[in-house]
Every structure is written in structure tokens, then in C-alpha cells.
Amino acid sequence: TTEGTAVDEEDQVAEEACVLDAVVLCLNHSSKKSLLTGDALAAADVNRDGAVNLTDVMRLMNYVAKKSTTL
What we know:
The protein is 66% helix and 0% strand.
């Protein structure tokens, strides 16, 4: 239905906004402007290499830009 499609689009926009927020948090962490801790730090380490850095930021950005379907 048309309503279902609108809800799906709203969910997608909300998800992309969350990922963009994560990009900013990762950038702030990697530049030492504002450090992440605990669960936020673990979640920001997208590639699970033990560090939050520009590699994680790029993966998030590629996901938002639909160049990648997975994080």
C-alpha cells in the first residue's frame, strides 16, 4: 500500500540520520575532539579492528550513500 511505502521511507530516513550522527561522533572521536566510551565506542568500531578511525567513518558514509549495503 501507499501508506506502507511512506512508513518504509520514514524508517529509512530515520536510519540514515542515525548513521550520519554516528559519522559525526566517529569523526569527533578520531580527531580527539570528543572521545567515545563504553558501548558507544564499541558500536563505532564498525570494522571491529579495535580502533575508531577514518576507516570506520568511510564505511558509515558509504552505507549512507548506498555504495554499500552492509556496515
